[in-house]
Structures are given as C-alpha cells and as structure tokens.
Amino acid sequence: MFSCRLKFSGLFSRYLNLKSSFSFLRAEAFLQLCDFQSAAASYKQAGILLPGAFSRRLAFIYYLQGQSLLDQSLFLEALEAFSKAAELKPDCRVYKVRSVVCLSAAGRYSDSLKLLNHWMTSGNPTADLYVLRARLHRRLQQTLRCYQDVKAALALNPSCPAAGLLLQQLHEASEASRLKAVDKTLTGQLPQALCMINVALENNPQDPRLHLFR
Asked: Which residue ranges does UniProt annotate as crossing the membrane (predicted)?
C-alpha cells in the first residue's frame, strides 16, 4: 500500500511538471506574439501548479505589458500592469518607478507624489528619485521643495545631469523674477516687487543678493 502511494505521488508530481511545462511553453509562444495578456494568463496557470516558480517571469510579462500600454498613452491601464509587477517583485525599483511615471503622465501629480514619498521614506533614496520628485514638485508649483530635492540629488551625485539641468532652470527663473522685481521697484510698484523677489527666492534661496534686495 505504501509503495502504491509513493508511485502515485511520483506520477502526480510528474503530471504537474509536464502540465506546468506546457503552460510555460504556451506562455512563451504568446510572448513571442506580443500577446502579453495571454502570456500572463498562461504563466499564472503554471504558477498555480508550481507556486512561486514563475513569479519573476510573470512580473516581467506585466512590465512589458505596462510599457506597451504606456507607449500607447493608456496610462491607467499601464499603471495596473506595473502595479501587478511590483506586487510580484516588491524589491524591483523599476516597476515602482514606472507606476509613478504613469500617474504623472495621467496628470495625477499629487497621487504620484504621495506614492513616491511613501516609497522614499521606506527605502534608500537615490539621486534619480530626488530628481523625479523635484519634477513633480515643480509641476505642482512647489518651487522651494523642488529646489531642495535638486540639491539633495546633487549631494548624492554631483555630476547628475538631470539635477544639474533642473538647477540651471531654477536659477534662470530666479534671475528673471529678480529683474522683474527691479523693474517694479523703479516704477514704484513695491508690493509687486516684493512678490517677484519672493518668487526669485523660492527658485534660488541661497542667492544672497535676493535676501539683501528684500
């Protein structure tokens, strides 16, 4: 009786392996056709037979699906795909970043910022993440926070080109506002001049000329 059970167990395990292999091959065939939805369904079926065996591959399929949808400007559908990928591989930073990008592309800057803030406080922020958040702050007209994130990015990576470009843009905006403040002062429009110099300070709070002007 015991030997029969062992034999049955061995046959059943072989059956599961064969069936999961078939699902795997079918999923790869769908992937070659760029049918990501069918490929994901086949991998999910294979994962039911062998739990955890195909999680990494399934996450990658969802990533490819999300990227395809993002390229078609289907931002919320892409967000769903990237979110599924992140659930399967929570340690993969790329999947989470793409989710933030989708929210931003859909115009949901506050939601994007909220997701990014949560992620950055629970992990180790990089210069690229600070730049990404700086851009979101700028979209939301939170100029001072944008400046602070740019400086944080440069502190981590002084040669970061994206951070350097953002800092240059902030400095240019600051100088433009300073010149407007000068014009307003010369024409006696002091409240408007103060408003312009405050804008200049938000874009470049470390410029001593602006503090003296105010």
From this structure: none
- Report the alpha-carbon distance of residue 106 to residue 69 in Å, rounded: 12
Please, which residues have CB within 8 angstroms of residue 171's CB and are 6 or more apart in sequence? 203, 204
C-beta neighbour count of 6 within 10 angstroms: 10
Task: Report whether 61 contacts 39 (CB < 8 A).
Answer: yes
- For the chain, domains (ranges, CATH) are 17-107 (1.25.40.10)
Residues 24-53: tens digit of each pLDDT: 566 666 667 667 777 777 777 766 666 666
Per-residue pLDDT reduced to its tens digit, 136-194: 999 999 999 999 999 999 999 999 999 999 999 999 999 999 889 888 888 888 888 88
All residues at 6 or more sequence positions from 194 whose CB lies less than 8 Å from its CB, including other chains: 181, 214
